[in-house]
## 1
Amino acid sequence: MEPKIKEKIPLKGIRARIATKMTQSWTNAPRVAEIVLINMENAKKAADAQKQDGVTINDLIIKSCALALKKQPLMNSAIIGEEILVFESINVAFAVALDEGLITPVIPDADALDLKSLAAKREDVANRVRAGQRSADILTGGTFTITNLGGFGIEIFTPIINYPQCGILGVGKALQRPVVEDGKVVPQLNMYASLVFDHRIIDGAPAAKFLNEIKTGLEKPETLI
């Protein structure tokens, strides 16, 4: 017995582009995931201290990622044809969930922006895509992508690479979890971050160094200023 069809949804527009891109990624990029737990106590304090400037924890994550890309340039690359192109520009894309699908506006030269400027740029491009703008200046040129499902209560996930970029960072929900410090169990605000990368471009050890650079930046946010 065939199931009854409730609705037929045309695969077109943003949904069709997402389908094509995800199929390309899944088919072409042999992916590996690495996951780390990050102490977010200091990052929260730093974000709270700059709240009046519009700075959020997301901005600290973007900044830490951008600086880590500078130290591990192979992660800031893509395979185009028969070459690995390592990009000089560090243009961080971040996922914005819309009713019609996921879209990834870009923050150009994120490594060169101070946190206040980065926060303003993030807010600007996010608002523009939510308002329906789809211009090339905010949607093209990304060299690495961050996607954050923490706001939806997701703790750990392994996202699909935004092909042909080398990698993507999946950010989970920051929660108070018990940890052991000096032999005692204490509460700590922490979150899981998942790095998924194209193993054709980079191996596990340098990818782990990249992920740990992000971790260090968030645990020592004074290094991001």
## 2
Amino acid sequence: MNKLEIKTNFDKYIKTFLEENSKINLMSKNDEKLIFEKHIYDSLSIKFLFDKLDMLPKTILDIGTGGGFPSIPIALEYPEIQVTGIDSIQKKINAISNITKELQIKNIEFIRDRVENIKDKKYDMITSRAVAQASLLIEYAYPLLKKDGYLVLYKSKNVDEEIEKAKPLIRKLHMKISDIIEYSLPLEENYNRCLLVLQK
């Protein structure tokens, strides 16, 4: 897989993120030096999917948005997409809301709640990164996806076991595995990752 072409300059975002991270632990101190390579680049690997689909979703819900990955990098890189991040931890929501206010990002909002409590909205695409097993995320995401919408799970390359466990649920819900996109992070170590893409 080729390297990503990223349009946005993330310097101001990184500075603002690190200021918030000094007050509340959004990511480990060890990762701060590698925030672009490990977190921003990884978040924007969804570009590989957008390129394959040759389209952008109008709306994205990010389940378990935590420190704002992938929700904030996607919103910055794609101002035409309306992004919603949901997380159950209030202090994280407060911190990432401060970041988006500081950077005046207009196309993102955050909800402090558990995803299973959201009933009244449907999205073109749902993402989740480093949150839970695929089967659980499929269960949470399915009712919130529009017909033909995509669920995009950021996973390590060894995703086969999770797929096997999720297959009965995928069949039951009449979803399909639409793609598994493998890529590497721009690090000296061999950080292989993949996007597990399911369609409703």
## 3
Amino acid sequence: MRPLAIIGPTGTGKSQLALDVAERVERLGVRAEIVNADAMQLYRGMDIGTAKLPVEARRGIPHHQLDVLEVTETATVARYQGAAAADVEAIAARGALPIIVGGSMLYIQSLLDDWSFPATDPAVRARWERRLAEIGVGELHAELARRDPAAAASILPTDARRTVRALEVVELTGQPFAASAPQIGAPRWDTAIVGLDCDTTILDERLARRTDAMFEQGLVGEVIALLDKGLRDGVTASRALGYAQVLAALDAGGPAGPSAEQLRDAHEQTFFGTRRYVRRQRSWFRRDHRVQWLDVGAATPAEGADVVDAAVRAWRHVS
């Protein structure tokens, strides 16, 4: 059965639409299962800051690729691609509709299209991650600049994850990082791709409310709890939006804990960082001409139902 992908910027309601579509197609006699494509929702315990749907809110619909990593593990596109593709194939083999949902750009494209990735070696990566912990991202980036100046020029000096990956690939292949870029093949399936977006002003207001809700619901407490599970050691998890900002506030506060001003700054920086990320998501997704875009700026139930109808029609090839 052909998959349906629901993609788009953060805050556009992808998770809720996926649930609504799953219930709608069930009334048509088709079961549906959902495959997560949000990199940070892969992590156990990272719930509030990723807006992960709690089990009781999933309406009994099976979800895959949620809570599959510890915060100390590094999320990689290659690992996700293999695991998520297997999920999609298994769902389709059961005669159900696979609904792929998320906004992590590389994760989605690597799943929908047949990407091949350069080699990876956990031991080599772990060695570079230990080196990162010893000398910090600035010095590690300088090491990359000595080994592969072009790669260093294309990676921000603060981007620890990509710096580690570049050093790993250079060591394994003996080639510049750019020479080992993923090779993009043909589409993996005949996927119907629906994109959600809305007016920037409306979305910014939603992002502000979303950020408020994260802090009100206990993001700071969630981060503190994850520290006991090794959050600081997680190269990917510790740099997630919201989590990185709260960690910075906790560090600034010291033993006495963060001040109200430091927490306000974490709140503000989380909002600004999310807004910047949304701009990047839009730029990336708009390049894919397969996407059928739906405006989700409406507020009425009837208009929301229209979006569900449009998504189902896209999947059924109905114009």
